[in-house]
Design goal:
By secondary structure, this protein is of the alpha/beta class. About 20% of the residues lie in helices and about 35% in strands. Helix 1 crosses helix 2.
Length: about 180
């Protein structure tokens, strides 16, 4: 499928599943090497990162744990600019190495809020791992430790990312196409 229609918009394939999975495997190898002996706790930001988190965890070669946090900042194709925590973290983070797993970093506001919230829980270290990063949208000073792909400022769906809750199950990555961009 080169294009798909989701609700009122058309999207075209911009990255095949095989390319994404290959890069996720590379990230897992790098994180496994960097975190050897640390038993990191991955905090996957729902809903968008669930496929990325599952694929990454299956490729990890060191002991590690995973938990999920749900944050919301989108309506349709636009960020609201306001992040609302919906499901919190139940684990004791004191002295832990934490790796935040995000599907996409755009402005950085979601990650910034998460780091501030995590800081009150006394983790040993907090690292950021994102599948996609839009550098031209970044408005906050962030250090991204692991970035799978830097992408242009296009609206994307698939591989866990959605348009108004649709398109998450698409295996490939799709970019908004046509004049409605």
């Amino acid at each position: 499928m080169d294009t798909v229609k989701i609700k009122d918009k058309t999207f075209r394939v911009s990255m095949p599943e095989a390319q994404i999975k290959w890069r996720v495997k590379e990230l897992a190898q790098q994180i496994s090497k960097d975190m050897e002996g640390k038993n990191p706790l991955f905090l996957a930001v729902l809903n968008g990162s669930f496929i990325f988190a599952a694929d990454l965890m299956r490729e990890m070669t060191i002991p590690c744990e995973i938990s999920f946090v749900k944050l919301a900042s989108y309506q349709g194709t636009m960020s609201t600019g306001k992040v609302k925590e919906m499901i919190g973290i139940n684990e004791d983070l004191t002295g832990r190495t934490v790796i935040i797993l995000e599907d996409i970093v755009e402005t950085g506001q979601t990650i910034k809020q998460m780091i501030e919230s995590l800081g009150t829980r006394n983790p040993k270290a907090v690292h950021i791992c994102t599948l996609f990063f839009k550098p031209e949208r970044l408005t906050t000073d962030l250090q991204l430790d692991y970035v799978a792909f830097e992408i242009p400022n296009d609206f994307i769906v698939g591989y866990g990312l959605d348009y108004d809750q649709h398109g998450r199950g698409l295996k490939d990555l799709y970019t908004l196409d046509g004049p409605e961009k």
